[in-house]
Specification:
Blueprint: H1 4-11, H2 14-37, H3 46-65, H4 85-107, H5 111-144, H6 151-171, H7 175-201
Helix pairs in contact: 1-5, 2-3, 2-4, 3-6, 4-5, 4-7, 5-6, 5-7
Length: 202
């Protein structure tokens, strides 16, 4: 599904654009909280701390970008200040549950080991998505002459993706086979989310 026309419609409308930025901020914040929730009580490595901190900062940065739009919109993450709120709020949870189910079945994991494996694969899928989504959004922003920019996020997400690849290589020699299945699960959820987003702004 081509998201570019949807993003062009969003960026062209100040209220929709504010809600879009707020929705992205919500999702980055939800991702940061998911990463923190997957941490071991004692055995926490530097990459996890860095990643959670950067996702939180992305949520903050996107919220701050709202200052570049007029109207003082979207102060909270309430449903009326998000786009397709129900799908947005369940997106990461649904992905996490589906991936946990898959990993439990194929690796016989439980407890912290399952949480950590889910963190690796879910975060990888989300970074692949971010690597596709943010550049298209930036292109639309540039073409529209918008003061909003996500260039710094694009650079950091590329770094995150490389870090996830390194961790996945250490997790399993055939990680790619499993990552492909997780990507397919995420793709279905993303397409459903975009479909609902398109309906909301039509």
């Amino acid at each position: 599904m081509n998201i570019k026309p949807i993003l062009e419609n969003i960026v062209d409308n100040n209220v929709l654009h504010a809600k879009w930025l707020n929705t992205l901020s919500y999702m980055e914040n939800a991702g940061a909280k998911k990463i923190s929730a997957s941490e071991h009580k004692e055995n926490v490595n530097l990459i996890i701390l860095k990643h959670a901190a950067e996702e939180h900062r992305h949520a903050y940065y996107l919220k701050k970008q709202l200052d570049k739009l007029e109207g003082g919109l979207c102060k909270t993450y309430t449903n009326d200040e998000l786009l397709t709120p129900n799908h947005t709020k369940f997106y990461l949870n649904a992905l996490d549950v589906a991936v946990c189910r898959y990993l439990k079945q194929h690796f016989n994991l439980s407890g912290y080991e399952l949480k950590f494996a889910a963190y690796l694969f879910v975060t990888y899928a989300i970074e692949v998505r971010a690597d596709e989504l943010y550049p298209v959004y930036q292109e639309v922003l540039t073409n529209a002459g918008s003061r909003v920019t996500v260039k710094s996020i694009i650079l950091e997400e590329e770094g995150h993706l490389e870090e996830m690849l390194n961790q996945l290589r250490g997790f399993s020699p055939d990680w790619e086979k499993h990552a492909e299945i997780v990507i397919k699960i995420e793709q279905e959820m993303f397409e459903d989310w975009i479909l609902n987003l398109g309906k909301q702004i039509a």
